[in-house]
Amino acid sequence: MFYLEKNLATGIGSLPYQEAKQAVDFILSCFKDDVLFWPQLPKKSFLEQMMVQFSEKLPGVVIDQKNKNIFVDTKNDSFGREAEECFQNYLDGNLDYFAVSPEYASGLYALCDKLNRDTSHFSKENTSSGKWDVSLIKGQIVGPITFGMNLLDIDKQPIIYHPELKECLIKLLSMKARWQIEKLAGDRGQGAGDRKIIIFIDEPYLSCSGSSFFTLKKEDVIEKLNELIDAVHSEDALCGIHCCGNTDWSMILSTNLDILSFDAYGYLDNLLLYSEALDNFLARDGILSFGIVPNNEEALEKGKKEELAVRLKKVIGGRRGVGKVLITSSCGCGTLEIKLSEAINHLCVEIVKELG
Known about the structure:
The protein is globular and about 60 Å long. It has 356 residues and is α/β, with parallel strands linked by helices. Helix 1 (20-30) crosses helix 4 (106-117), helix 3 (79-91) crosses helix 6 and helix 11 packs across helix 12. It has helices at 20-30, 50-53, 79-91, 106-117, 144-150, 165-185, 218-233, 249-253, 264-272, 275-283, 304-318, 338-355; strands at residues 8-9, 36-37, 61-64, 69-72, 125-126, 131-132, 136-142, 196-202, 238-243, 259-262, 287-293, 326-329. The chain contains twelve helices and twelve strands.
């Protein structure tokens, strides 16, 4: 495992481009001295929507691109065979079976191709291989709670309540996370260098915790999250959880996560109320990822950089145990206009410089 050696900026994941090359070129330009990430492009294709992007090989999954609909047909004659196939490949450790195809994650493939072939964007060369040494790369994957509660079966029930699917979905996501880590790490023998990988688990549904819509037990949520986190750890990568709303932060901090990614612009004070859980997380070298830059036009207000930097310095300096941090936007930028999205991400980088 590894730790942050300095404060760094990165992106949540989604960007508003419709061309993967354009998205990757922006990331390489904006975050070249920080943490690179692969872009999710929901405007490019329905297949790159969060609930669809990691659904390949889920038993019974039906994707209707024309009507922009996804569901699971558990009554299809092939469902049992597909479930058995999924479990068997999990047991066999066959990561390639769970690969995310290029049409589902064009930004992932575009970034990896660029890093492995193009040397024009970096100032530090690995002279032994002729490739550029990228030290930190972030990926992301939909979380099991968000995936399981939002994706419905043919009877309009969340698949997390289906006896076979609730086990299958977490194993599917675990294998896809591991596959993604290996994809991002590249072939070190071919010049990828010593890339360190971070994976964020996107769990917006956790903001429903405590409401009548959230019927899962706290222990079950922690167990499912830990299974995915442990899969990430098995590949020597760091794992974060991103929740862009308010939630029961003690529940998330009770998992095995390394990084807590949260909307600090809107909910920093709410997180600080969970003092004991937060102190325990920091005591075990947990990392805070502050989504301090609003993903809306408020980011363009005059003096916003200085305002946000002052707010962060007060928290970081006044909280025992806070080490180096990550800075991001409050949530993804996939629905925004390109110009606004770029301004928001540049502001994340500028705030890191303010922190020093």
